[in-house]
Amino acid sequence: MGRNMGSFVIKKLQLKKLWIIFFLIIFFVVPLSFLDSIFKWPLLIFLFFTVICYVSNIRNFSFFLFSVAFCIRLIIVLTINTPPISDFECLLSASQRLLEGDTSFVSEGFWGGVKYFQIWAYQLGYVVFQSGLLLVWNNILMLQLFNCLMGAGTTVLVYLIAKEISGEKASEVVALAYCFHLFPLTYVTVLSNQFVATFLVFLGIYLLISDKIIWSSYVKYGVCASLLALANALRPESIIPLVAIWISLLLTISRTNIKEKVLLMMILIGVYFGLKSIISALFILTGLSSVGLANMNPYYKFMVGLNYETNGGWNESDYMCCENVQMCMEIMKQRILQPLPQLVQLFFNKIKVFWEGGALSWSFTDSLRNGMMLMGRRIDVSLIYVICEHINKCITAITYGLLMIGEIGTLQKNGNSKIVLLTNYIFVTFGVYLLIEVQSRYVYSVQVAVFILASLGMEELVKIRKIIRQKIASLLC
Question: How does residue 26 score in pLDDT terms, banded at 50, 70 and 90?
Fold first, then answer.
């Protein structure tokens, strides 16, 4: 009996190791695409944060981190002018009209006569939420200030979650690196629904995996599922962390805990979909949407994501047929049945577009065109923008490299369940965005998980450094 149980445990550990190895093999193409971009300045930036954290002892680091993160984001918001465009303009207009009691925007056409909110009714969740913020102060700055709060809160969660899987100093380094990382730092000027949704998702993950939260597993999974459902009402991508958590439960099932794990799976799915249905039903009851928060064309994102000519990105041609569900389904089928080499090339192109995370243009569009006011003088930011893009790309590449180093080191730890969960979050995101529409700004949410796991890489480098010093010392002796 003991031998059989021992072999089962070994198989379970091997399964988790094989899962991480599989992830490493697949995800390797991401840092590989950055090899031509790494240069000394981003490395020096990381070195600076490392030295600061390892030689200093900052009390109340969470408060310090939140204060710094919020203040620099506030400076960015007050410095960079970013008028809402595209979907953000549409959502802002709808929120302001809802504030005035006008709901006619739901049935109106936007951009070529497309009835935006009838096809993508799930966008109404954020419209209502945004309208609530504007009720406090009907100014675009109110929304940007809220983005600053959510961005700063997410930065603290990077630190807190990283502490659950690695050491204090490594967690401080990656949290500070994320705090000053140019994409999430400047992105707060954009009226995106990603900020609050991402904060809720990672708050749920923290409550779920934290050893400091003394709740039963059933309560933790119920609360986490509730937060995911609320996040989904604001931005419909919570299915990614939901699947990631579900896979983590599946990978940690054993003969001794199978009943508990199955029950946790049921709680996770039941609470999530139950609350999701209740929220959707409320929108029907209020008369704002006859279909709740549904997606009335589930094929559209896949159709766009499989467009070989645009590397899976948004394009006007695909957009103009978004109201025809049958046509979208047929085009999607035609594209996915293309020769395998063409499909593989599309995937590689989409990986580069998505994982580079270089969406600085969303914040700098107006500044690049009209310049930026600084101390009463208008300055040309084109050169500054090029430098920022390069630094942003390189810091992203270094973080991916640290993630890979950390994951390799994890193979010696018998598959820490917390690490597996965060790995799954990245893995599921990787797979989903191979198929659906990609934009570089969509990386915002998953980049949080990348920085958290990069703390493992920092710890591995410190260990390697200690080993090298010991070897050198022994040779000198």
Answer: confident
Of 29, 39, 103, 19, which is closest to residue 392 (Cα–Cα)? 39
User: What does the CA dihedral 285, 287, 293, 294 come to, rounded to 10 degrees?
Assistant: 100
466-474: long-range contacts, CB 8 A cutoff, minimum separation 24: none
Higher confidence at residue 49 or residue 122? 122
pLDDT of residue 410: 81
Structure tokens belonging to residue 373 = 């006011």
Q: Is the C-alpha dihedral spanning 434, 187, 279, 250 positive or negative?
A: positive
Distance between CA 324 and CA 315 in Å, rounded?
16
What is the reported pLDDT for 8?
47
* Nearest-angstrom CA–CA distance, 21 and 57: 36
Owner of token pair 């958590």: 245
Q: Characterize the bridge pairing of strands 372-374 and 377-379.
A: antiparallel
